């Protein structure tokens, strides 16, 4: 900060500071505060807003608790997001390890490009590609039937499997790069030393690689979890009525039901639970905010 | 107990580049063997071949006369101490030391007990629960040694483990390493580019250059009877006088150099007419008094005196290939006496003069 002042002079520095603060205040803090405020008020026609009925209430939150379907979707979303996170970790850990410790020079560069290029394509299109692959008459089913592995096509879409695959794929980079970053800073000699001392591959990872990469694992898991719990595109495209995501419920409160107050309460509940989840994870993995900030 | 290590015609290629070329040697069980050579000559590569991180392109590595091909580093009876130690920073000192035992499924109480025994051995009792980051360089050094010894290896491989330490500590650790080696009876294979280290600690030394082992021998052999100009110039300081052999007299020969004829030991029985070099160690040269004579003599003006305490180094004007150096023992009056002289007569004996074939020197 002092550096900024010294380098640009006070006028520009103050302007930069002020614009940033204004941006944060009006674009981030204020809307959120309004949302929270919304969520504690009843939904009223415009004429009654500010009137005697416009009081703070927990009614909107009670709705979420009382509506068993919504409550079910809420917890299913959390649970599914956890599953997506675990799956993404299982898929990305070997990739990140290979990138960081095994692949050399060109091979590593090529692999990184191969990981990144698909992400130049818009998320909707990417997800739609999965729709083409996984749908009833899609490539995957045709291949399985063609090989004689199954008799009839499997219904991936409209179920949870499609949504999970789609999400794991959509958030691979958010998991791979934190892991890669953390693993890359591990001195290769430590892995060799562990091996030289007789450790199995499993033990090397458990005792040396994972403890070192823990902050990266935490960041990757938190990002993947937040993105999964908060996405709407993937469940919309790859899911069906039976695999509804909580974000879809929120969406319909806002835009189909026109009840912003109810929608705000749902959204806020989701946010709170996500934060609780993160704190629990950080506790569990014994990582602090400082570790993550590194 | 230690086991023998044998390299049988070992060659290691990285693509077209040959990092180790046709190395054959046998290191005895319980021996302290050093590989000595300049940076990039293939020392670490040899250690990695022995420890199993690499397989030789050609040839065989045998430990205790058992062929090691296909046996990974975790299943060889070796332990490697890395150039940068590679301690586990997230484990406590005792967990570091006991890691090898943990990998072998030894119970926690027993691991802890063994770690504490080893901490006693390396003179760090009470350090079990410290973090690695709390240790000094020399202490880390010792923990790395203990960690390697904990798995009771038959062969301990050390990759320049003292290079990061300051001089005093380095000297201390040298004798400590030697003591640990004697106490445990483990075969030590030690890598260094510091000739002083190799000479003081080793039973035998292998001098390497560009992937080849040029000479294997006891420290005194390497120093007093080097095979070639490279070994002679890499191990210890030396004065070189190039010339041509003009006469043979038994085991001695006469060589015509730019500063006159010199008589020396014809170590390689070179015939008359061969281009050769006469090589003399700086401490074997002395300043002659008036009228005193020696087997070989030359006359030159002193250029500079470097005072080293116990020694005084006298640099003479262009008599040899480079400037000629004399190490003189300091008796308190040496420097004053020599500084008075404008021309010094320097003498050295046949016995101190080695005649070697011309070839590459370590000076480049
Ligand atoms: N994995 C590898 N791939 C390609 N070349 C390598 C590899 N490992 C070593 N080399 C090359 O082999 C040569 C010898 O390397 P090595 O590490 O054995 O040298 P060293 O004697 O230990 O040197 P230093 O004293 O600097 O540690 C070097 O030129 C190095 O570039
Ligand atoms: Mg090396």
Automatic annotation (TrEMBL), chain A:
Keyword set, alphabetical order: Cell membrane, Membrane, Transmembrane, Transmembrane helix, Transport
Occurrences of domain ABC transmembrane type-1 (ranges): 74-283
Domain of life: Bacteria
Membrane topology: Multi-pass membrane protein
Transmembrane parts of this sequence: 12-31, 73-96, 102-121, 161-180, 217-238, 263-285
A Pfam family: BPD_transp_1
Subcellular location as annotated: Cell membrane
Protein family membership: Belongs to the binding-protein-dependent transport system permease family. CysTW subfamily.
Protein name: ABC transporter permease
UniProtKB/TrEMBL annotation, chain B:
Domain of life: Bacteria
InterPro entries membership: AAA+_ATPase (IPR003593), ABC_SmlMolc_Importer (IPR050093), ABC_transporter-like_ATP-bd (IPR003439), ABC_transporter-like_CS (IPR017871), Mo/tungstate-bd_C_term_dom (IPR008995), P-loop_NTPase (IPR027417)
Coiled-coil ranges (or none): none
Keywords: ATP-binding, Nucleotide-binding, Transport
SMART domains reported for this sequence: AAA
Keyword Transferase found: no
Domain ABC transporter: 5-235
Pfam families associated with the record: ABC_tran
SUPFAM superfamilies: MOP-like, P-loop containing nucleoside triphosphate hydrolases
A GO MF label: ATP binding
Annotated family: Belongs to the ABC transporter superfamily.
PANTHER family (alphabetical): SPERMIDINE/PUTRESCINE IMPORT ATP-BINDING PROTEIN POTA, SPERMIDINE_PUTRESCINE IMPORT ATP-BINDING PROTEIN POTA
Protein name: ABC transporter ATP-binding protein
Source species: Chelativorans intermedius
Taxonomic lineage: Bacteria, Pseudomonadati, Pseudomonadota, Alphaproteobacteria, Hyphomicrobiales
